[in-house]
UniProtKB/TrEMBL annotation:
Essential component of the vacuolar proton pump (V-ATPase), a multimeric enzyme that catalyzes the translocation of protons across the membranes. Required for assembly and activity of the V-ATPase. One of its GO terms (biological process) is vacuolar acidification. This is V-type proton ATPase subunit a. The keyword Transmembrane applies. It is found in: Membrane.
Length: 816
């Protein structure tokens, strides 16, 4: 919302001034008015028919029509996707009449359904004939092999005159080998295909049901067959069952039906078999030509639909959203006008009035729409005018809670503080350059990426590309301060200030270093890396730096609470919340920050832990060697007293003053001015009855006590929470150092090309996977927590609601 199309200058500190507006629109221009407001996208309608069900509203029939057209378009989209075609070739912006579009979509759906039905019948016939052809081929092989073996057996019997017949001969010879013609038996047979996975069970059930009085012959079909019923490819076997008697036949037919076996007729005469195969092959070729022609016609139709699909889809969505909005308006008493209420930014007044006039003119209405501002105590929605750069930072804040109307917006400060705190934990200018290159790829190709569908993770990364850009730039900056490039120090800004005590010193990194040059001009001196005192020095530096940054950001949060109270005219919060909070925080942790700076400037050896602990335990004792400046003891006593006074200052006065204000407000209520009730527009639709409620002093006092305790304890815990900056920075540095020393340098030391290549690959994967992905996510989440909890809870209420205007630009693809 608001990416482009913002007329006023961007002021993110306060949300845009909003106004509640009443629109009185003649019925003949209502549709066009709502359409023009949707194009403008700066008016949020209120539902004046909330008590009515969707079916009782005025334009329910039109919404039903749009829903039916949307269903047809979804059907077209599924068919286009199923056919493997695209649906965004030619897009024209001219609108189509809804009635004509409805007729056209109905005709196209009927035609497509008819084509699909015919195509399905043809495919069914084609698949049946394909199976029939397989049965003819395989069963023909059965009969041919059986007759060959029977003929050979007959010749053998004529020679031998004795012996028993084979298991095949009684079934397949023209007459049984017996001398009694009256005992000849004519066998019947059933042929078809059965799914291969059911063939064993099929055979067992057959033998059990007929008590073994059948002969089953099966042949495997090499390739999967498309089943005529399901339309899916299935591996099948061709079978031929020989039986005797009608009872056996009825059992076999029932078993075939139960197992989903498709039966096909088969003639035992070789001539008829050949003739049938020829006929089936001819019909298959004819069906193939017919099916191909039908598919070509169907694809041409779908391609034609695909050219217009995006335009039709957008048009139907617009129509549905317009009628849905019209249903939120109510009729006036004359039933000739529609009355609507809603919120709009003050700056958009002129644009909305122009849209109303244009709609009146275009619809040839004799009466113009009326635009009237209403006065209300209802809290307006929150609207920040953002662009593609600031919107992602605003989303970070909105994920915690949408700002109350016109309260100070932390998003302004988040643009700088969020990537900076991330960079404090991620300080390495080598890793920062990698992040920068990755995000520059997204920024350079943002037009291409914004027009296509991305995966969830890629889409989330692309949406926050400008956040990652600043994170990368600040990481390069803090990496230069830490002097770390993949954990390796460089003398970028001059020579190191330290050198060997004498020319013969062999281990310059651990022993005998003295200061021989001026102090290293920017960041950490490269000679600290690898020395014995590296870890104590960097730990002390980063821990103190974390406290300074934390106290500064918390002071900023309390300062913003002052600007909020000043803006809303709340003097109680200034004197009994802001003042004691700023005194309490700075009496303790502001003083600690002062001690850190003084210690850095003077090079003192004072123990700050001892100073802060005994400031509470023994405030009157002498500081001794821990004294940093003259008058420190007196200052500590004053600050301690101020911190102790600030707690009851926060707790007690505010509830009593709130009670006094409530009593004074209700004492003069009987003599309030009488408002005219003749003008219906002056009445409030949602009257605020909270002013007439009894003042619950105990509830207010308990709430203030909880708030006070939370702030006092939070001042300690929040300051300690900022030490995560030190902890994650140390973890990142040590992990980077381990990967460099124990992987890259170790592989280099083997003097083997293969080992070196493997080492480089492992180093790259470890750096990308752990340091550039996991560590980035970890630092991001910790920076998020510091903003949401430690910073925003000092001033940010976040109990507002977003301005969600009626806008065609916000119609998503999933919104049906």
């Amino acid at each position: 919302m608001g990416e482009g199309g913002c007329w006023p200058t961007m002021d993110l500190l306060r949300s845009e001034p909003m106004q509640l507006v009443q629109l009185i629109i003649p019925i003949e221009s209502a549709y066009r008015t709502i359409s023009y407001l949707g194009d403008l996208g700066l008016f949020q309608f209120k539902d004046l028919n909330a008590e009515k069900s969707p079916f009782q509203r005025t334009y329910a029939a039109q919404i039903k029509r749009c829903g039916e057209m949307a269903r047809r378009l979804r059907f077209f989209r599924e068919q286009i996707k199923k056919a493997g075609l695209s649906s965004s070739s030619r897009f024209r912006s001219n609108d189509i009449d809804l009635d004509n579009l409805e007729v056209k979509l109905g005709e196209l759906e009927a035609e497509l359904l008819e084509i699909n039905a015919n195509n399905e019948k043809l495919h069914h016939s084609y698949n049946e004939l394909s199976e029939y052809k397989l049965v003819l081929q395989k069963a023909g092989e059965f009969f041919h092999s059986a007759q060959s073996s029977a003929a050979a057996q007959q010749r053998e019997l004529e020679v031998q005159q004795t012996g028993e017949g084979s298991i095949d001969s009684p079934l397949l010879l023209e007459q049984e080998m017996t001398t009694d013609p009256s005992k000849q038996v004519k066998l019947g047979f059933v042929s078809g295909l059965v799914p291969r996975e059911k063939s064993m069970a099929f055979e067992m059930i057959l033998y059990r049901a007929t008590r073994g009085n059948v002969f089953l012959k099966q042949a495997v079909v090499e390739h999967p067959v498309i089943d005529p019923v399901s339309g899916e490819k299935v591996e099948k076997n061709v079978f031929a069952i020989f039986y005797s008697g009608e009872r056996a036949k009825s059992k076999i037919l029932k078993i075939c039906e139960a197992f989903g076996a498709n039966r096909y007729p088969f003639a035992d005469d070789l001539g008829k078999q050949f003739q049938t195969i020829t006929e089936v092959s001819g019909r298959l070729s004819e069906l193939k030509v017919t099916i191909d022609a039908g598919l070509l016609h169907r694809n041409n139709l779908l391609q034609t639909i695909g050219y217009e699909y995006e335009q039709w889809n957008l048009q139907v969505k617009k129509e549905k959203s317009i009628y849905h909005t019209l249903n939120m308006l109510s009729f006036d008493v004359t039933k000739k006008c529609l009355v609507g209420e809603g919120w709009c930014p003050v700056f958009a007044t002129k644009q909305i009035q122009n849209a109303l006039q244009q709609a009146t003119f275009d619809s040839n209405s004799q009466v113009g729409a009326i635009f009237q501002v209403l006065h209300t105590k209802e809290s307006p929605p929150t609207y920040f005018c953002t662009n593609k750069f600031t919107s992602s930072f605003q989303e970070i804040v909105d994920a915690y809670g949408v700002a109350k109307y016109q309260e100070a917006n932390p998003g302004v400060y988040t643009i700088i503080t969020f990537p900076f705190l991330f960079a404090v934990m991620f300080g390495d200018w080598g890793h920062g350059i990698c992040l920068l290159l990755a995000t520059l790829y997204f920024i350079v190709r943002e037009k291409k990426f914004s027009s296509q569908k991305l995966g969830d993770i890629i889409e989330m990364t692309f949406g926050g590309r400008y956040v990652i850009l600043l994170m990368a730039l600040f990481s390069i900056y803090t990496g230069l301060i830490y002097n770390e490039f993949f954990s390796v120090p460089f003398e970028l800004f001059g020579l190191s200030a330290y050198g060997c005590r004498d020319p013969s010193c062999s281990d310059a990194s651990t022993v005998g270093l003295i200061k021989v040059w001026d102090t290293y001009p920017f960041g950490v001196d490269p000679k600290w890396h690898g020395s014995r005192s590296e870890l104590p020095f960097l730990n002390s530096l980063k821990m103190k730096m974390s406290i300074l940054l934390g106290v500064a950001q918390m002071n900023l949060g309390i300062a913003l609470s002052y600007f909020n109270a000043k803006f809303f005219g709340d003097d109680l919060n200034i004197w009994y919340q802001f003042v004691p909070q700023i005194i309490f925080l700075n009496s303790l942790f502001g003083y600690l920050s002062l001690l850190i700076i003084v210690k850095w400037c003077t090079g003192s050896q004072a123990d700050l832990y001892h100073v802060m602990i005994y400031m509470f335990l023994s405030p009157t004792d002498d500081l001794g060697e821990n004294q940093l400046f003259i008058g420190q003891k007196f200052l500590q006593l004053v600050l301690l007293l101020l911190a102790l006074v600030a707690v009851p200052w926060m707790l007690f006065p505010k509830p009593f003053l709130l009670k006094k204000q409530h009593q004074e407000r209700h004492r003069g209520q009987s003599y309030a001015l009488l408002h005219s009730i003749d003008d219906p527009f002056e009445t409030e639709p949602h009257h605020d009855s909270h002013d007439h409620e009894e003042f619950e002093f105990s509830e207010v006092f308990v709430h203030q006590m909880i708030h006070t305790i939370e702030f006092v304890l939070g001042a300690v815990s929040n300051t300690a929470s900022y030490l995560r900056l030190w902890a994650l920075s140390l973890a990142h540095s040590e992990l980077s150092s381990v990967f460099y020393d124990k992987v890259l340098l170790l592989a280099w030391g083997y003097n083997n090309v293969i080992v070196l290549i493997v080492g480089i690959i492992v180093f790259i994967f470890a750096t990308v996977g752990v340091l550039l992905v996991m560590e980035t996510l970890s630092a991001f989440l910790h920076a998020l927590r510091l903003h949401w909890v430690e910073f925003q809870n000092k001033f940010y209420q976040g109990d507002g609601y977003k301005f969600e205007p009626f806008s065609f630009a916000l119609l998503s693809e999933e919104d049906e």
